Structures are given as structure tokens and as C-alpha cells.
Amino acid sequence: MPSETGIRHEAVAPTRTRWLAAGHEVDAHRHDDHQIVYAGRGVLAVTTGAVARGAPGNRAIWVPAGTVHAHRAYGELELHFVGLPAAENPLALDTPTVLAVGPLLRELIIAYTRDEDDDSPERARLRAVLLDRLQASPQQPLHLPAPTAPLLREVCAILRAAPADGRTLRELGRTVGAGDRTLSRLFRADLGMTFPQWRTQLRLQHALVLLADRMPVTAVAHACGCSSASAFIDAFRRAFGHTPGSHRDGP
Question: How far is residue 31 CA from its own chain's centroid?
């Protein structure tokens, strides 16, 4: 139900599977429980506060209890939710986090969210194995913070509008009327990362969206500012552990 702030509040984070059409958005809401969100197909973007996190098929997102978050679907999205009581935090994480999802964990999440939610011994064993594999999942630094400093907002807006823009920070600084040293300090202080790191995250998330829309890999490489398709494939593989072609073709 909506609160006085307009943010929907749900006491219980459901465990279920849901299918969303491309472009579908779920408005800002929060749960009293923790939630694990996994996209078995398509790409999910979860926004929490000023940070957007992208989750392809080998990533899940941990959303702690009480965190205000919104969803957006890129491509046809098969979405799996695992709800956990607030008193149970197997990952000991208090902030939204992207987690790696291997083949076994993927199948466990899918099976657990598709089965009937009951108290059977079989389901309890499945849940125990799922939580065990979650605890062994490495965290993945795939997030794109939004700037608060006015100068950075201008720079980041330019790059969001054209991720392939290859201008240096000095060249972008001339456009917004700031020196590259000033902007470099702002990137570290405001966003917690360097300019090249932020632009790389932007381009990777842009690539996920384009691949979810079935764009050819060569065209995606060009749209993300890569010098060649092979350079893009190498960068994508280093970030996600598989090639963009296998990601686009789906599991």
C-alpha cells in the first residue's frame, strides 16, 4: 500500500516468479523483509537511491529490508524473487549488492521461486542449499552511482545521452566550464570512483540494455564507444564472465 511519501510499502517480500514485458517499470517501493532479485531472462535494472544496478543472467541483486527500490525491464524479463525475514541475513549485507550467480545457484533460485510456498521438508532442504550457495557467491561491483555535484551532473548527462562519446575529461571539462583536475576530484569524492571507472560502468550497463533488445554485437560495440568488436567482446567477458553473443542469445 502507498505511504504518505508515495512509496509503496509491502510488509512481506514475496517469493515468486514474475514475467515483465520489455520497458515495464515497477515504481519505488520497500519491504520489511530482505529480498533477492534475479532475472532468469532479459536484463533487470534496480535503482536504489542515487545508484542504478544492472543484473544480467549471471547476477542477482541483494536488496536489504527497508531499502526503497524500483525495477525496470530490458528485454522480455523472467524475474525471480526470494524473500527472507529481516531477522535472517545469511549474507551479512546491509546495503544493496550485486552477486554472482553460477549455474547451480541459478537452478536453485528458479526451482525455489516456481514451487509452491509450503512447509514441506523438501522445500526446506532446497532453501537451505540455496542459502548456502548464496553465502559462497562473490560480490560483483556492477553499479552506476548518480552524481550530486552540479558540474558532474552536466558531464554525466552528456555521457548518458551518448555513451560512445570518447572525449577526455579535459575535453568534457571545457564544455561544462571546469578543469579536468577539479572534475577528477569530484568523481572520486561524489561517486567513489574515477572518471574511467564510471564511464566503463555506464558503457557496460548500456551494452546490457542493447543486447537485451537483440542488437547485433558489432553494433553494440560501436554504440558503446569500443574501437573494435573484439575489444568490446574482451571487455564484456572480463566484466561478466561470458561473451556478449552468448548473453544476447539467452540461457
Answer: 18
User: Looking at this protein, which amino acid is placed at residue 209?
Assistant: V
Residue with cell 574511467: 196
Distances (CA, A) of 236 to 39, 226, 240: 18, 11, 6
Among the CATH numbers 3.40.250.10, 3.60.110.10, 3.90.550.10, 2.60.120.810, which is that of 8-140?
Answer: 2.60.120.810
pTM attached to this predicted model: 0.69
Cβ neighbourhood burial of 3 (10 Å; 0-12, 13-18, 19+):
exposed
Q: SS3 of 70, please? A: strand
110's enclosing H/E stretch is helix 103-114
CATH class entry, domain 144-249: mainly alpha
Residue 184 amino acid letter: S
C-alpha–C-alpha distance, residues 233 and 151, integer Å? 32
CA proximity to 180, closest of 190, 171, 189, 188: 171
CA distance 48 to 152: 19
For 42-96, the pLDDT digits (tens) are 788 888 776 777 766 678 888 999 999 888 888 788 889 999 999 888 888 888 8
* CA 197 – CA 211 distance, rounded (Å): 21
